[in-house]
């Protein structure tokens, strides 16, 4: 998980200027928390907080996150627009997904207070983001079948029809060589090896001829 206390100093100070917020900060006793952040009235630092409960609160207008799957699922279910600052792994994809669905913005210039303030203002004042976020949450809440209904339908199907040949994967009948494509991988390795051997032999031949010609010239 990405830790917010590891942000560079410029990013931390830029975030503080024009935003009233609750910040999950893992080191409430470090230099930033006890120094510059201590005098900010509109700031609450907490080592841990019930994120899902906060997202469900009616007063929450915007969520800034690195875009982990857990956070993305929670903000989507709660219908909260977000600014995502992806760092690694699946986070860039998650951020792009949120932006594609019009529920937030995928940005990484949090150290620039002017751009960050403009972005926060855009998401708070443009109702499109909140509308899209709430609509997505409503769609998830009113999905055609609940998980319980899906389970019951599949159990009923299995009890009525038994094992189905149409649903039986062909991989069951494969041996381990076919299943793991060992034959294809071996062929690829052999071909690549032959190519590398050919290239190496050609390079050695050219170098040996060049060295031989220079040797004859000096003799």
Describe the structure.
It comes from Pristionchus mayeri. Keywords: Glycosyltransferase, Membrane, Signal, Transferase, Transmembrane, Transmembrane helix. One of its GO terms (cellular component) is membrane. This protein has about 220 residues and is mainly alpha-helical. It folds into two domains: about 5-140, Glycogen Phosphorylase B (Rossmann fold), CATH 3.40.50.2000; about 175-219. It has ten helices and five strands. The chain has helices at about 10-15, 30-35, 50-55, 70-80, 90-100, 115-125, 125-140, 145-160, 175-180, 180-219, and strands at about 20-25, 45, 65, 80-85, 105. Helix 1 (about 10-15) crosses helix 6 (about 115-125) and helix 4 crosses helix 7. The N and C termini lie far apart (about 70 Å). The mean pLDDT is about 80.
Our Rg estimate from Cα atoms comes to 29 Å
The largest sheet has its strands arranged as 3-4-5
The overall number of domains is 2
Percent of residues in helical segments?
A: 55-70%
Largest sheet: 3 strands, parallel
Count of helix runs = 10
- Which percent band covers the strand fraction? 5-15%
Molecular shape: flat
Number of strands: 5
Query: CATH-wise, what's the superfamily of the largest domain?
Result: Glycogen Phosphorylase B
Low-confidence parts: none
CATH topology of the largest domain: Rossmann fold
CATH architecture of the largest domain: 3-Layer(aba) Sandwich
Structural class: mainly alpha
How do the helices and strands follow one another from N- to C-terminus? HEHEHEHEHEHHHHH
CATH uppermost class of the largest domain: Alpha Beta
The first-to-last residue Cα distance is 68 Å
Average pLDDT, rounded to a whole number, is: 81
């Amino acid at each position: 998980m990405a830790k917010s206390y590891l942000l560079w100093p410029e990013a931390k100070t830029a975030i503080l200027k024009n935003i009233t917020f609750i910040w999950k900060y893992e080191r409430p006793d470090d230099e930033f928390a006890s120094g510059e952040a201590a005098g900010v009235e509109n700031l609450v630092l907490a080592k841990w907080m019930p994120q899902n409960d906060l997202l469900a609160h009616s007063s929450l207008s915007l969520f800034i996150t690195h875009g982990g799957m857990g956070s993305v699922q929670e903000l989507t279910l709660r219908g909260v627009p977000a600014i995502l600052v992806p760092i690694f792994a699946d986070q860039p994809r998650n951020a792009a997904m949120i932006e594609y669905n019009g529920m937030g913005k995928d940005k990484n210039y949090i150290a620039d207070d002017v751009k960050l303030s403009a972005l926060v203002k855009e998401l708070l004042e443009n109702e499109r983001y909140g509308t899209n976020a709430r609509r997505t949450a409503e769609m998830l809440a009113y999905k055609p079948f609940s998980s319980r209904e899906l389970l019951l339908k599949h159990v009923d199907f299995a009890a009525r029809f038994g094992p189905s040949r149409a649903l039986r994967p062909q991989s069951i009948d494969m041996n381990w060589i076919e299943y793991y494509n060992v034959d294809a991988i071996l062929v690829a390795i052999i071909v690549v090896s032959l190519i590398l051997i050919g290239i190496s032999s050609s390079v050695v031949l050219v170098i040996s001829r060049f060295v031989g010609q220079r040797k004859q010239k000096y003799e």
